[in-house]
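Narrative of activities, Objective 1.

The group set out to show that a structural description can be obtained from nothing but a protein's sequence at a throughput compatible with the screening campaign. Below is one input-output pair from the validation batch, recorded exactly as produced.
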Amino acid sequence: MAVPPGPSDTGSRRADTGWSVSVSRDTTVPADDVPDGLAVLDPRGHFVRLNRAALALCGGTGADLTGTPGPFPLADECGAGSPGLFDDDTAEQVTTYTPATGGQREFAYRLHPLSDDPRYTVVAFRDVTDERHRQRRVTALARTAAKLASEGTVSATLDALAAEVVQADGLAGVQILTRGESGGRLHVMGSAGFRHPADFFRRLTRVHELGGTLQMLTALRTREPVVIPRRWEALRDDPAWAPLHDYLVELDWDSFVSIPLITRGQSTGVLNAYLAPGQTVNARTMEFLTAMAEQAAIAVDYTALVERERDVARREERQQLARDLHDSVVQQVFSAGMHVKSMEVLAGRGETVPADTVARVSGEVGELTRSALADLRAMVHQRRPSASVAEAGLAEALRAFVDGTAARAGLRCEVGIAPAVDGLDAELSEDVYRIVTEAVHNVVKHADAATVSVDVDVRDGWLAATVTDDGRGYDTPSGADASGGYGIETMRERATRWGGTVTPTSGHGTGTTVRAVLPSTPTASTLELPDPTPEGPTR
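Output recorded for this entry:
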């Protein structure tokens, strides 16, 4: 056939009428008799002619689209939009297109040179938006299931799960909040699309005090999903939500969905999804979000089971410690006591005790006590129990640890600890101690530093613990914090438990700083759940 007329040709108005395209020397396709879109592209990749299906897919008329750039790269190469894991035809490429009517579409396409004039290209394409969407959802579920089998912490797993939900459905953001086994407090354990302000729960609590309705509490109470269309439109004009306006405005979102996490018949948290403008909540969306909430609930339940196993391990360790004490220290102390008793017997006879006997017995007693003390120190070093935190206080326990570690490693140490840290909750003190000691251990193991500085301060309801070294450091991506290894993830999990954060920063040759920010009171970082009374009017 002849080269199809271009946009300036008199025949261009026939672009939306019936026509035929020759795709090989022996085949002519009636353009309007095929279900797929067919179009002719000029050497620049602009539309020259489109069949009826192509016009419907691109959302326009022939007059609108003729002469406009098509979304199909003419280079014969496999780009980033090539078929994914579940596609079965590697000769077909995938591209994205945004019609004038709005809403992004995904087209699978094939390119063929026009037989009559190879400068022009025939493209056959079809809409695979829903198909690709389903593939991304299946992939997200598969990746999340794999994460549950990995060695990552629960916070890292839920962060990854939130990111998979956002990527699969193109959402604005996702939060995953869980409640402790006591059922009284909520914590943000995973999120994507949001930043992590240290005072998030303080603001959320203020919203609750001002009368703002927290729909996630409805999902928790009823154990049923809650869907609120145009939620942001209502919140941005509600003065009760003013404390969180600058936080929520960072997302380009509209509607809100809260899915309860159900574990063993109990609500253990919620998955909050923030939908982008134009997105609708249909049955498939709810099915996917519910499936991902189930994955999150499995992760939370798995963590609880692991924690219970750790409790069993701790009891077994205490029993082992009792056996070790009996086998070594107790027997040594008993033996020393017997030596002292023998001296008492000799002295009770009223006779003069020979000096060599006194020297021999005292030497043996001294040796036994030194041996018992060495065994006790070895047991303490091996198990690193936190009893010293409860007995001596957090400040003294940290100073003793830092001073002892620095002395053994040959480091200069600078320690500044506010006296107010000794007034913290016992469990919070334990986690702060573990975070700081892990950071100092990282300095000893990895930093090759000469000086380590530890600063712990408490003010305005928040605790800040900073460990800084002058070691070799490491490079981090521009504008991003170092992700760190398992030690950093463990510190983050301890901080996240209280609604806090751990941020490592470093640079090559400039040392490393690990900063942990946690609430000094539980109410600063958690939301106390109200009694399950009926909800008021929706805001």
